[in-house]
Amino acid sequence: MIRSSAMRPTLLQCRAGMKSAVSKPSSLAFFAQHVRPFYRPARKWDESRQQFWWPKITALTTTAGHATISYPVPSDSPSEFVAPVNSTPYSNLTIGVVRETYPNERRVAITPQNAALLLKKGFARVLVERGAGAEAQFTDQAYEKAGVTLGEAKTVWTESDIIMKVRAPSFEGQISEVDQLREGATLISFLYPQQNKKVVEKLASRGTTSFAMDMIPRISRAQTFDALSSMANIAGYKAVLEASNNFGRFLTGQVTAAGYVLFRSFQSLSPSINQIPPCKVLVIGAGVAGLSAIATAHRMGAIVRGFDTRPAVREQVQSLGAEFIEVDIEEDGSGTGGSHSWKTSPKLITEEMIAAMKPGSVIVDLAAEAGGNCVATAPGELIDYHGVKIIGYTDLPSRLPTQSSTLYSNNITKFLLSMTPEENEFGVDLRDEVVRGSIVTYKGDIVPTAPRPAPPPPAARPAAIADKPIEVVALTPWQKTSREVATVTGGMGLALALGKATGPIFMGNVFTFALAGLIGYRTVWGVSPALHSPS
């Protein structure tokens, strides 16, 4: 493990096994050491607002045809784990995409469209295993048309500098994907390091630099990389469809030849009228998946209610047409960290609650992969528990493989292209908040988890204000009318004066700007900061 105390601004520590720095003069070394610093633009460090400085290049190393420029990192770096910033030109890197071997996994990490984008950016090759995208309706012909090189799995694993996957690589069984990974390669995928510690240890033993897409911080700048939110959105949508498929009635009311199927507003009429009320849906947790489920169920005509421990999501739940349920508890789940510890999920639905549900009811547990929030959940299965169907599928995003692969491919491609210390170069800069938050191993060293932002302090209750008599001066009807007339007259006069002095085009722009400003102000002012990024 490399720590900041071991680094000095004037000393570059190279990894064991790398060749020594180039000693003979060469055009590349001369350009890197003497010319390039004068053309490097000034930048500002990311959201921490600390100044981003560019040190003098201290060494130029070569390994297997790769030229790598190394910079020292200051010893007072705010990150716990510090390493030199090594950048490699895109033209020297090969991207690899393999077929997912996890059971029932149908997604693929890269779509043909994003593969073409990577080649356009300057990467040497994009290797894709034959048939990798078949389950997601991306044919080999589509990849070849995008300029991709198709090959066997062994070729992709051994010849790729950067491997992109959906699931974590396997390390047990007849075929160990971790053992096929090339020494010193880079891996980007869902890893869940807290849950898959053995996988992390195996990756470290291979000298791998790995990034977990599930550990990307939930900040505004990283919204385009947030694969968890993309998959949660799909999971919430698919959960409602699965529930509807296993539910024995309509979700909405309809008018049929057999009689009137009435909506909730007409349920107070005579009981002699034939009526089938709409389905009632309760969504526990109004995160990304919960909001997606609420919107989907409401569009299908169900009566939707939502609950969350964060008071800030009330407006979002209500804006989607659902009723927000309040429970008098002390917990407040507001926060911006987006941390996922992957411990056993808390049991929120007990046996007593299941027994109180009507026969034919359906429970969809989106936390089944982590143990489930329902006591009777069987991960990966659909069971009938005393007349209540409990769905514990762990592959809901994979059941919409084309859409899931498209969104995940966009996330992982933009994340890869964001790691560019220099233009058209790939490098790992641990001073970047997104990189530091998502990195798991760095060249064989297990990187400690980045500290998550502390939750906001509880809102202070307003102090009681003693009732004091307030003198109110009532306006007479004449004064009130006079003020209204004066205000309207002044506004119209100002508008006419501007119209006479400028023209219709300018006035149209002024009115558009005024309306846009008013709508934007009213939209953003009442939203809690916790909702400015996906939660």
UniProtKB/TrEMBL annotation:
Gene Ontology, cellular component aspect: mitochondrial inner membrane
Domain Alanine dehydrogenase/pyridine nucleotide transhydrogenase N-terminal: 96-235
The protein's enzyme class: translocase
Entry-linked PROSITE patterns: ALADH_PNT_1 (PS00836), ALADH_PNT_2 (PS00837)
Keywords (A to Z) from UniProt: NAD, NADP, Nucleotide-binding, Translocase
CDD domains the UniProt entry points to: Rubrum_tdh
Family annotation (InterPro entries): Ala_DH/PNT_CS2, AlaDH/PNT_CS1, AlaDH/PNT_N, AlaDH/PNT_NAD(H)-bd, NAD(P)-bd_dom_sf, NADP_transhyd_a
Listed GO biological process terms: NADPH regeneration
Pfam families registered for this protein in UniProt: AlaDh_PNT_C, AlaDh_PNT_N
EC code: 7.1.1.1
Residues in Alanine dehydrogenase/pyridine nucleotide transhydrogenase NAD(H)-binding domain copies: 244-392
Reactions performed catalytically: NAD(+) + NADPH + H(+)(in) = NADH + NADP(+) + H(+)(out)
Gene Ontology terms for molecular function: NADP binding; oxidoreductase activity; proton-translocating NAD(P)+ transhydrogenase activity
Keyword NAD found: yes
The protein, known as: proton-translocating NAD(P)(+) transhydrogenase
Organism: Hyphodiscus hymeniophilus
Lineage, uppermost ranks: Eukaryota, Fungi, Dikarya, Ascomycota, Pezizomycotina
